[in-house]
Design goal:
10 strands; alpha+beta
Length: 297
């Protein structure tokens, strides 16, 4: 099954919701009525101009002013509903006059027919105060309130949908970019962690190698010190046997030490303690490394 992006479904939902909301608002809070002038009809040599008045509200509407040619009076306007039509005393212009329409019944459509002399007078017929009484004036075929509300809802919903889809696409791109950067940061963090573990292991290995070398060197120094101590004692014993005092043999050994500056050779016990300490450190390091390897497994 084709997987559509979330932005598409968001646009569909936005369009549907916005369509219903705006259609409802336009239908219930729009114009109170609609006045539509139709096409003129030739009848018995005269021109009859149809005018449809549709009251959408729940109350009667009065005071609608219709501009007509000067010779047209209230008697020249035929209606199919009981509305009141009266001529207004003041003139709307040099060639026109106004007639007043009252009592347009609620939720009904009233058809008026204005009798004119010829088609040249058709442009003179129009509603003067449509906005004041809440009417919408249009030329042509009458349009129902529901149809106008749906049309308005479609236009507004389309505009909102385009904006919502564009913003959704833009923010989706930003979120994807942030996710990509987050994944890259995680990969870099993992790589650095692995490098850190590797360097830590190498450092531990170097410490272990250093401890081993130190133990080896200290062991050899300890052996040399023991051998040197043996020869010191042998020389002292030989001198004593030859009749030299013990103090003289000791002084001789000290002179040799001062001459060669080998004072460190007289601390054999310290070297042995250092060997024991280094061996303990090495053992602890090996145990720690072994524990880390077992934990990684």
């Amino acid at each position: 099954m084709l997987k559509l992006p979330a932005t598409f479904w968001s646009g569909v939902v936005t369009f549907i919701v916005t369509l219903f909301i705006n259609t409802g608002i336009s239908y219930y809070s729009g114009d109170q009525g609609l006045a539509t002038i139709g096409r003129p009809i030739m009848l018995d040599g005269k021109v009859v101009l149809p005018l449809a008045l549709e009251n959408f509200s729940g109350k009667s509407i009065s005071g609608l002013l219709l501009q007509v040619p000067e010779e047209v009076g209230a008697a020249s306007v035929v209606r199919d509903a009981p509305v009141q039509i009266t001529s207004v005393s003041d003139q709307a212009g040099n060639l026109t006059r106004s007639i007043r329409i009252d009592g347009i019944e609620p939720k009904t459509r009233t058809n008026l027919f204005v009798v004119l002399r010829d088609v040249t007078e058709v442009p003179l017929v129009r509603i003067i105060n449509a906005d004041e009484v809440g009417f919408m004036f249009a030329d042509g075929v009458p349009e129902s309130k529901l149809h106008r509300a749906v049309t308005y809802g479609l236009v507004v919903a389309g505009i909102y949908t385009v904006i919502a889809v564009a913003l959704g696409y833009y923010f989706n791109k930003i979120i994807q970019s942030l996710h990509k950067r987050l994944d890259e940061a995680k990969e870099n963090s993992t790589r650095l962690h692995e490098n850190s573990d590797k360097l830590r292991k190498e450092l531990d290995d170097l410490k272990m190698m250093q401890s081993k070398i130190r133990i080896l060197l200290l062991s050899r120094i300890s052996d040399y010190s023991k051998e040197l101590e043996f020869w010191r004692n042998a020389i002292k014993e030989l001198l004593v046997r030859r009749g030299a005092p013990a103090s003289t043999s000791d002084e001789l050994i000290k002179c040799v030490t001062r001459a060669l500056k080998t004072f460190g050779t007289r601390r054999g016990s310290d070297d042995f303690d250092a060997i024991v300490f280094a061996a303990g450190v090495l053992k602890d390091a090996e145990n720690k490394a072994r524990s880390v390897e077992e934990a990684d497994r």
